[in-house]
From TrEMBL:
<dbReference type="InterPro" id="IPR036390">
    <property type="entry name" value="WH_DNA-bd_sf"/>
</dbReference>
<keyword id="KW-0238">DNA-binding</keyword>
<dbReference type="InterPro" id="IPR000524">
    <property type="entry name" value="Tscrpt_reg_HTH_GntR"/>
</dbReference>
<dbReference type="InterPro" id="IPR036388">
    <property type="entry name" value="WH-like_DNA-bd_sf"/>
</dbReference>
<dbReference type="GO" id="GO:0003700">
    <property type="term" value="F:DNA-binding transcription factor activity"/>
</dbReference>
<keyword id="KW-0804">Transcription</keyword>
<feature type="domain" description="HTH gntR-type">
    <location>
        <begin position="9"/>
        <end position="77"/>
    </location>
</feature>
<dbReference type="Pfam" id="PF00392">
    <property type="entry name" value="GntR"/>
</dbReference>
<keyword id="KW-0805">Transcription regulation</keyword>
<protein>
    <submittedName>
        <fullName>HTH-type transcriptional repressor YtrA</fullName>
    </submittedName>
</protein>
<dbReference type="GO" id="GO:0003677">
    <property type="term" value="F:DNA binding"/>
</dbReference>
C-alpha cells in the first residue's frame, strides 16, 4: 500500500481506491482479509472513522464483506467488478475525448490505431 494522500479527493475515498488498486493488482486476492480499520489508521496516521468510512465504501460497493468478529474480506467477483468499472471509466475519461480530438484533427481510425501501436511499442 502506498501512503501518499493528495488534496484532490477525501482521504477515505483514497483509502478505498488504494485497497481497490491492490485487489486489481493481485496484491490482495479474492477471499483474502483486508487491513483492519485500526491497521489502516495506524499505518496512515489517520482517524479510525476516516479509515472506517473508506472500508464502508468497499462494503457498500459489494467488493468486500464483513465477517463478524474476524474482519473484512475481498468478495468473490471483486476483481471482475472492479475491472469492468475501471474499463468503463477509462472509456469515458480517455477514449471518448481521444476520439473527439482525433475527429477535430481529421485523423482516420487507422491513424489512431497506428499512434496507439507506436505508443505501446515504445514501452
Amino acid at each position: 500500500m502506498q501512503s501518499n494522500f493528495d488534496d484532490t479527493k477525501p482521504i477515505f475515498q483514497q483509502i478505498a481506491e488504494m485497497i481497490a488498486d491492490d485487489i486489481i493488482d493481485g496484491e490482495i486476492a479474492e477471499g483474502d482479509q483486508i487491513p483492519s480499520t485500526t491497521e489502516l489508521s495506524k499505518f496512515y496516521q489517520i482517524n479510525r472513522a476516516t479509515a472506517q468510512k473508506g472500508l464502508t465504501m468497499l462494503v457498500d460497493a459489494g467488493l468486500v464483506y464483513k465477517q463478524r468478529g474476524v474482519g473484512m474480506f475481498v468478495a468473490e467477483g471483486a476483481v471482475r467488478q472492479l475491472l469492468l468499472e475501471r474499463q468503463q471509466d477509462f472509456f469515458k475519461q480517455y477514449v471518448k475525448p481521444l476520439v473527439a480530438e482525433a475527429k477535430r484533427l481529421h485523423l482516420s481510425e487507422e491513424q489512431i490505431i497506428q499512434f496507439i501501436k507506436e505508443a505501446t511499442s515504445n514501452d
